Amino acid sequence: MIVDIQTKIPQGIEKTCQLKTEKFMKRNIFIVTPKNKEKSNITILYFHGGSYVAEATQEHWKFIEQIVKDTGATVILPDYPLTPKYTYKDVFKMAVPLYKEMIERLDSNYFILMGDSAGGGLGLALEEKIGEENLPMPAKTILISPWLDVRLTNPAIDEIQKKDKELNKETLKLAGIAYAGEEGINSYLVNPIEGDLSKLKNVTILTGTHDILNADVKVLKEKAEKIGSSIEVKEYEGAGHIWMIEKNSKQELVEQGYQEILQLITSGEDSLAE
């Protein structure tokens, strides 16, 4: 029997944030809002990483908690279906209707999509999908060390692997195959590096040079530039995978990365709707 892995709420988060759990298509949706800070207009839809096999970790919760405390934003964290019980098809059966409902209820001018690692790949693929359907895009997209191609065929990966202390290419490939299922291994929904980038706007990617996923970020940027679609890449020399969440790099890099994210979230808040 394959277990349906679900995210657990960590103890103590309600001391600093308001936390509400709602159901969407029989899955939990966690809504985190500030407790001791004025609530801002910004809502963030956040897809956590974990190679599509693991639930949100304590580090993810701490990261989200800190963002809510520092910005006053509302963060919505979906407990999306995970492999091996589910594939990308199940994920998008939840993610697309969730996005549609949110865009109907919220002002898209104050709506930010964020994701890290696998969640970053999921977020970008979701935007490519909603672009196909001509739905409103979020005001901003912030991707942290996104997994853009589960096939991991980029030849530059092997050289970076020597420096990457977090990820292993062969282990990741197995997770990607499980997530893709029988026919999805070449789908852009699994590999957003293959998707249509033409309708994206205000996308920023934060990536470290000691992360094997950095190689495909560069390919994505080149593809975007060729069609005139702007994707801004902020590369941190010596930083590892999702370094400001797992704090696995030098403290200076962790702080720089986190402050960059705060700036991206809050910059232009008063003028987002203009």
Structure description:
- An 8-stranded mixed sheet has the order 1-2-4-3-5-6-7-8, sandwiched between helices.
- It is globular.
- Helix 1 links the parallel strand 3 and strand 4.
- By secondary structure, it is α/β, with parallel strands linked by helices.
- The chain is built from 8 helices and 8 strands.
- The longest helix is centred in the middle third of the chain and has 18 residues.
* Amino- and carboxy-terminal Cα gap: 52 Å
Q: Shape, please?
A: globular
Profile the largest sheet: 8 strands, mixed
Number of helices: 8
Task: Give descriptors for this structure.
about 270 residues; alpha/beta; 8-stranded mixed β-sheet; globular
Summarize the structure.
The protein is of the alpha/beta class and 274 residues long.
List the helices and strands and how they pair.
Layout: E1 17-24, E2 27-34, E3 43-47, H1 58-71, E4 74-78, H2 88-105, E5 111-116, H3 118-132, E6 140-144, H4 156-161, H5 169-180, E7 203-208, H6 214-226, E8 231-236, H7 243-246, H8 251-266
Parallel strand pairs: 3-4, 3-5, 5-6, 6-7, 7-8
Antiparallel strand pairs: 1-2, 2-4
